[in-house]
Design brief:
This protein has about 140 residues and is mainly alpha-helical. It has helices at about 1-10, 15-30, 35-45, 50-60, 70-80, 85-95, 100-110, 115-144; strands at about 10, 15. It has one domain (about 1-144). Helix content is about 70%, strand content about 5%. Helix 2 packs across helix 3 and helix 3 crosses helix 4.
């Protein structure tokens, strides 16, 4: 619902999705991604498996999924939005190392009975993911 609303409510000349991804874009570029990808990770907090569908919906700016029966359609979509091998690897690295989903965070809170450990379990992989993506992106850009 949130994704659909953000993709379909316009403020000024752009959707809320475009405004939010534009705001995140400068930081996301530093770690090898773009604002849409970073926003997809944030909106995917309830369930990490929805990150790629959110990216596809945001790039299409339609608020609905595209039937991708051929991987070349997905490739064309990503490349047309500026994806390079650096973007792909950074997205994969961040996917491996970012915060746990909301259910995992709730389970950690329930099992440890500690807000401190819940916050730590959120921040440690997130900071690690940001640092690894930054280091990778910086090194890759120096080599290209």
């Amino acid at each position: 619902l949130i994704i659909w609303l953000m993709a379909n409510i316009s403020v000024g000349d752009a959707t809320l999705l475009a405004h939010c991804s534009g705001f995140l874009d400068p930081f996301a570029r530093v770690i090898g991604m773009d604002g849409v990808i970073l926003l997809a990770f944030i909106l995917g907090f309830p369930a990490n498996e929805i990150v790629v569908p959110i990216i596809i919906m945001a790039y299409l700016a339609e608020g609905s999924l595209l039937d991708i029966s051929d991987l070349s359609v997905l490739r064309d979509l990503l490349v047309s939005h500026g994806w390079t091998w650096i973007t792909a690897v950074s997205t994969m690295l961040f996917s491996l190392m970012h915060w746990p989903c909301s259910t995992t965070c709730l389970t950690i809170k329930k099992e440890t009975q500690s807000v401190k450990w819940t916050i730590a379990s959120f921040l440690v992989p997130t900071v690690t993911g940001i640092v690894v993506c930054f280091l990778f992106t910086t090194a890759a850009r120096m080599l290209v």
